[in-house]
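Hi R.,

Quick one: here's the Molybdopterin molybdenumtransferase sequence you asked about.
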Amino acid sequence: MRTVDEHLEALLELVGPLQPYEQPLLESLGLPMVDDVVSPIDLPRFTNSAMDGYAVRASDVQGANRDYPVELPVVGEQAAGSSSPTALTSGTAIKIMTGAPMPSGADTVIPVELTDGGEATVAIHQARRAGENVRPAGEDVAAGEVVAEAGKALGPREVGLLASLGFPRLRARPRPRVVVISTGSELREPGARLDYDSIYDGNSYMLAACARAAGAISYRVGITSDDPREFADLLGDQLVRADLVVTSGGISKGSYDVVKAALADLGSVEFCEVAMQPGKPQGFGTVGEDRTPIVTLPGNPVSSYVSFEVFVLPMLRRMMGMLPYRRPMVQATLTEELRSPAGRRQYLRGWFEVSQRGARVTPVSGPGSHLVAGLARANCLVVIEEDETALHVGDTARVLVLDREF
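And here's the predicted structure, written out as tokens:
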């Protein structure tokens, strides 16, 4: 059997970063930038008011208080988005709204609540220093400044910044298109009638959701029976929209292993055993004229999920140009004893939590690869290395915390 790390290395060699192109700003959410993004303008673009009030010269209102207010004639009004440039002369005030450009000659804004709100003249009840309640041009971002570095994935806050700087589109690598196929004559769509020996297909929904959560575009194309021709026809129809194909089931050593049978004639695919539990049977290669990468995962749901997390997720991140490829490990104190077979890396479901006593992890459910409810209750995988056969209460365990930003 090959090791987990050897198998992952082979899979990562199968794919490379997708070619970048310009995409609409919102479509770039979650994607890393290919190039440094440089601001074309200052932000704020012009010096403007931070308050509703009156633009004045600070020297004209020195000493103003409620007992002895300073009265100034109001010579104009400046509103955001509907004003032409104005100038202020000494001894006057201009009514101004939040975000409106500061008149030339003015250096301070007196908030309206510190005045009598006058229209023709205004009584100012409190002085302010020069520069107060004023937003200088370029205070936030200067033109020519790098605002998003290459390799950084854009979040909602970065999207807001780039929109504010006038970027309608950005150059980024596209989201990989992942086609997900479940195999098995016993499978039925959720909501369909079940026969005596049939079950609902959860794997394709889970794997499509995993791909989507990773930032990819997922196409769940349903179920094929154990007929190799049916699988081959479905796969051939889907390759036109696939950057990666992920299948579940049909790769063990039984008589009805449809994926193995079909792929023998469809491409260059290798089937192997990996020293891990769950998830020992694996397969990968390319199919079709365009040599589309394909990863074949085992059919038991926990095996399928763990295989996606360990192997497919790093592939998708590589295709999007995201680093690191692998989910970082953390350490936690184990609350229960665990055993593992020698020579295999085991991935056990667990619950990870951090309290005042530090990070702790508790096993969830049993080791069975069919126990999908236990998988749903878990928020981490406890990783037991190949040379470890037992971990005891209080030992430090290595943990993959799921559903967490890298």
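Residues 26-43+139-172 form a domain with the Molybdopterin biosynthesis moea protein, domain 2 fold (CATH 3.90.105.10).

Cheers,
M.
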